[in-house]
Amino acid sequence: MKILVASHTYIVDLNCEKLRSLTHLAPDIEVTVVVPKQWNPGGVQSKKIETQPKKEGRFRVVPISNFSQNNQSLLSFGADIMPLLREFRPHIIHVEQGAKSIGYAELITLNRVLKLKAKNVFFTWWNLPYKVKFPLSLLERYNLRHTHGLVVGNQDGADILKDHGYRGPTCVMPQLGVDEHLFKPQRQPDLATQQGIKPTDFVIGFVGRFVEEKGLLTLFTALTKLQNHPPARPWKLLLLGRGPLKEKLQTQAIRSGIADRIIWIESVPHDDVPRYINLMDTLVLPSETTYQFKTLSAAGWKEQFGHVLIEAMACKVPVIGSDSGEIPNVIKTDGLVFPEGDAAALAERLALLMAQPEQQQTLAELGYRRAMSEYTNRALAERLLAFYQTLF
């Protein structure tokens, strides 16, 4: 099977592991990844990324000239994509730019013009209800009508596209897996000492952006409740990340009397993130939906997946998440879920793990097994290949 994947995501080599894994599943699988030659993710003020070709056995990355250098929906490719399609003649054309993507429409059209007879597949993360106005409605209708298979990062996204008329095969799975060689259980006694963490401390962790929709204000309120009703074990909060909410969080921590329990880690290289996750007794993702469903406004946000959850699970760190977006489907019964914005419920979940070390260990083991069986790059590659095979 010859698979062509087009996306700006795979400019980053680390993101290619799932696609590399596809070529290891069978000797007849070839994967060609089309990426834009130039990409400028931060807009006009940031430095452009100049992509380079790469070939590793039956896996290769091919930069193609592109229009739009920082908008995935507007991304489309130059004429140099045509000889690549003629030469490679893929069985699957998989575009990861969304339902209203110009690039997807372009590749659908080239598939037809060049008579490749490939199956058209696209991926999307979008999980908020939306209305499409002319002329985008025509573009989306064209794309959905010629789609043979949908891969979507969350169940909400699958339901929304069904409402927009898509009736074909669907596979719900994240775009990227977890690297089990990097994210793995590994004690960090020296790092714990360096951060002032004692063996008796229960470490509550958060990794991500310091913004209101990530629910950090609710987390701080929950921790204040723990402060007022001391749990069985002393605790500390380890925050790994940065963002505009930091000053407000610091002020709230001082007012609540918990400032001395908080460890702030601005940011670390990706390879160091597992070391800090391994300091945690639980990782909390208290995301909060900001989308206004009544108005169907384009503004707002809802958790699309929560990749840090599977990274923690791979490190045998039990997870607690809100019920925003895809989080409950990621955690299922292998962690704890609470109603988003409910600080009292979150405090109860934290107190439960502090008081019951055996429950903490059970959830750690359950989460680890699910991460290894469902969310490694190899596991995602196997699921994706099985989905491709159903399209023929």
TrEMBL record:
Residues 193-369 form the Glycosyl transferase family domain. One of its GO terms (molecular function) is glycosyltransferase activity. It holds the Pfam family Glycos_transf_1. Keywords: Transferase. It comes from the Bacteria. InterPro entries: Glyco_trans_1 (IPR001296), Glycosyltransferase_grp1 (IPR050194). NCBIfam families: EPS_HpsO. This is Glycosyltransferase. It comes from Phormidesmis priestleyi Ana.
